[in-house]
Structure formats: C-alpha cells, structure tokens
Design brief:
The complex is a heterodimer.
Chain A (H helix, E strand, L loop, with lengths): L1 H8 L3 E6 L5 H8 L13 E2 L8 E5 L4 H13 L5 E5 L1 H5 L21 E3 L6 H15 L1
Parallel strand pairs in A: 1-2, 1-3, 3-4, 4-5
Helix pairs in contact in A: 1-5
Chain B lengths: L1 H6 L4 H22 L9 H10 L11 H28 L7 H21 L3 H31 L6 H6 L7 H18 L10 H4 L9 H27 L7 H23 L6 H25 L2
Helix pairs in contact in B: 2-10, 2-11, 3-10, 4-5, 4-10, 5-6, 6-8, 6-12, 8-10, 8-11, 8-12, 10-11
Classes of the chains: A alpha/beta, B mainly alpha.
Chain lengths: 138, 303
C-alpha cells in the first residue's frame, strides 16, 4: 500500500466536523484555505459531503448530544479515513472540562489518529500537524 | 482500429489526460487570481487515483442499479463524445453520424447526472437533480442554435469534418455573436461558475455528487475532466476551424484556440458569483436565445 498512500497524501480531502466547539478553532481552520496559508497547494481541499472525505477535522468537546452524531458521521465516511482532533477540547475538554454536557474526550467516541492541541491552535501549528500526518502516510 | 480510437487516441486515455490538464489550468488560474499558489499539475490525476482506492458506499435506500449505472453511462457518453469530435479533428476521418448525434450524446451526459442524483435518495441530491434538469432546459435550445450558425455558414452540411475545414465561422458578424453566446452555453454545460447551481458546493454540499464515494465518485470526476476537454474543443473547432491538411500546424492551431477558449471560460468563472436558478433560466430564455436566434437569421442572410 506504499504507493497508494503516497498518492493519498497528495490529495487529502478534508471534512470539518463541529462537535460542539466554541467556534474559535473553526475560524482558524477556515484560515488555512485563505491566500495567506493556501492548503490547496498540497492538494488539501475542504469538501461539503462526508462521502468525499479522507480526513475528519473534529473540533469541540463532543457533548453528550453530538457524540452520537459524530459516531454516525465517522461510520458514514468511506475508509480509509483519518481523524484529526483540532484544539485542546477534543483532547482534554479545556475550559468545558467539568461541564455537565461533556461526554468527551473524543477518543471515547471515535478512534483518533492525531491531536493538534491549542486554544485555538495557530494555522501554522495545524499545517505542521497535517505535514506530520503526510509524513506518517509515507 | 476502433478499439484504439476509443481507448487511446482521441478516446479515453487522451481525452482524460488533456481534460485533467485543462481542469488543472482552471484551478491554477483561479488560485492565481485569488493570490494563492494553487495545486500542482498532477493534482487531478492524484485525486482520481486516490478515489479509485477508497471504499465505494451504496446508500441503503438508493435505487442500486441506477445509482451504479449512471456514472458508468456518464463517463461512457463523455468518452464517446470525445471520439466523435476528436476523430474528424485529429485524424481527419469520418464517423457514421453527424452533428445531431453529437447533440444527443451531450444530452445523454446530463440525463445520466440527473438519474444518478435522483437515485441516491438524498434530499440535497434531489434538489441538485432538479436544478440539473432546469439547466438542461435552459442551455440546450441556445446551444443548438449556436451550433446552427457554423452549419449554415459552411453551406448547410451536417458533417462535422466538412464544417471544420470550411472558412471559419468566426469571420462574420453572426459567427462572432454565436461564439460569444456559445461560450456562455458551454459554461453552463461544464457547470462551472456562474452556472454551478447543480453542484453548489456551499449551499448543496456537492449537490448531485453528495452520496457518491470511492470509485463511483472517481467516475464522476473523470466525466467532468473529459467534459473539460470536449466542450471547449467542440466550440473551438466549429468557430475557429482547422487547416484542411493533416499536419503539425493543424494540431498547434487547435491547441492555440483551445487554450484561448478555455482562458475566456476561466475568466468568466472568476469574475462572477453563482447565479440563481430563475436568473439563469431568464438569462438563457429571454436574452441569449434572442441573440442566438438573431445570429441564425444573420447567418441565413449571409452576414
């Protein structure tokens, strides 16, 4: 699968899952597509349908209501699919750690391939994280 | 021989390669317009190769046969279109059929998109399917009238080979009008902005393709790539013509005007936001069809 993974790494289509975030990470994700960072040069594209996705970018704590949906979305994605948790929330809950709605962390809901911590992580950090994922594919 | 025509030269392999490069040009120039770097030249090849290795999911409630058959039919129609148009242009040979066959094959692609979307039992895909059908209604009449102008200019022959080696239709008032209208009709056929209302990434999340994944989605992408080759090519050879003898000059002549046509399409794409469906219908039926009709009348009068 070496050759296939190399080509998969050149064309990662990203689907954005908002699992009850505070919206801060989402705004930073959108930054990645702007002229300043332009991830399309690596072949990374934001797609609107889960059926087209290779990578799920999950933001937010994964509250009790949304966790079921996140699981269903993960099951609907065509495999192979990678899960990247953006921000501190999916990893540890951050400021919502003791909230009564918290059903996280994310790894209790779906398997996670990579964490990119930060509140929110800078776009440069996210690019570094995605480059790390590409490195793992090779 | 026909196998080689279909699978290698002007058919599948050649049409896909040129189409994906044309599509890349569209993405790259759009990126440059937005001050971005844009994807590398092999991006579309990597995308389709990747999709071939992904899991292909068939939704439980879909009409399974139509769901699988539609992308196959669409890519077949697109490749046969490439062979039908490519053989007179690149090989100077004829096929048993004329421009009417080409019009039918073009409509087949749209019909397959509509059926595939309708079969996938998704609400967004359903909306996309309805829009695709309305787009077909809007641009088909205009496009057929545009095709009539070079036919009339070349002396009422329906044979593509005779039309393209006659005096180029663009050397006349009616030809110029028809070419401009034809560019907009091609824009609608390719479903790129401002006429990407059936796919509508931001409001329908992919529209007609929303449920497709893996190999089947790859077939849709291949269809789109071949369309990027065939539709501008058809418009180019009809209006700019080609030198009558088969030589390198002919290929360079074709390449030059193919890129010119594609460049105009890309510029229109980048300066326009997406139109509304009633806006498109009104634009095509009330404005462009009148212009196209005027071009046909002028062509009959010999202007």
């Amino acid at each position: 699968m070496g050759a296939y993974n190399r080509i998969l790494g050149k064309s990662l289509w990203v689907f954005h899952v908002s699992a009850s975030p505070c919206n801060n990470c989402d705004i930073e994700i959108l930054d990645l597509l702007t002229p300043r960072y332009d991830l399309e040069r690596f072949g990374i594209k934001l797609v609107g349908s889960i059926r087209h996705a290779d990578v799920l970018l999950v933001t937010g704590i994964g509250s009790c209501k949304i966790s079921e949906r996140v699981q269903r979305i993960y099951e609907q994605a065509p495999k192979p699919v990678f899960v990247v948790a953006i921000g501190t929330c999916p990893a540890a809950g951050a400021t919502f750690k003791n909230a009564y709605t918290n059903c996280g962390p994310l790894e209790k809901i779906i398997p996670v391939d990579m964490y990119i911590p930060g509140c929110p992580p800078k776009p440069e950090t996210m690019i570094a994280g995605v480059a790390e994922l590409l490195g793992r594919l090779k | 021989m026909i196998v080689i025509y279909t699978l290698v030269f002007p058919g599948a392999l050649f049409a896909l390669t040129v189409g994906m490069l044309g599509w890349w040009l569209e993405r790259k120039v759009s990126a440059l317009v937005q001050h971005r770097v844009g994807p590398p030249w092999y991006q579309n090849f990597a995308d389709v190769f990747k999709l071939m290795g992904k899991e292909s999911i068939v939704p439980e409630k879909s009409t399974v046969f139509l769901y699988i058959a539609s992308p196959v039919a669409a890519v077949t129609a697109a490749i046969s279109l490439a062979v039908l148009v490519g053989m007179p242009v690149f090989l100077n040979t004829n096929f048993a059929g004329d421009i009417i066959l080409i019009i039918y094959t073009m409509a087949l692609g749209s019909a397959a998109i509509f059926l595939g979307a309708a079969a996938s039992s998704n609400v967004y895909a359903g909306i996309g399917a309805g829009r695709e059908l309305k787009m077909l209604l809007a641009d088909e009449l205009v496009f057929v009238m545009v095709l009539l102008v070079p036919i009339i200019r070349s002396g009422f022959g329906l044979n593509l080979k005779e039309i393209i080696i006659a005096t180029p239709a663009l050397f006349s008032v009616s030809g110029v009008i028809a070419y401009v209208v034809g560019l907009l009709a091609i824009q609608a056929k390719l479903a790129i902005q401002p006429f990407d209302i059936a796919e509508a990434e931001t409001e329908l999340a992919g529209g007609v393709e929303i449920e497709y994944s893996g190999v089947l989605l790859g077939l849709w992408k291949m269809t789109k790539a071949v369309h990027f080759f065939v539709f501008p090519m058809l418009l180019t050879v009809l209006f700019f013509g080609v030198p009558s003898s088969l030589s390198l000059v002919r290929y360079l002549w074709f390449l030059l005007f193919y890129v010119v046509t594609l460049a105009i399409l890309i510029v229109i794409k980048n300066v326009n936001p997406r139109a509304t469906i009633q806006g498109v219908l009104g634009f095509f039926w009330k404005r462009l069809s009148l212009l196209a009709f005027a071009a046909v009348v002028l062509a009959i009068l010999g202007v």
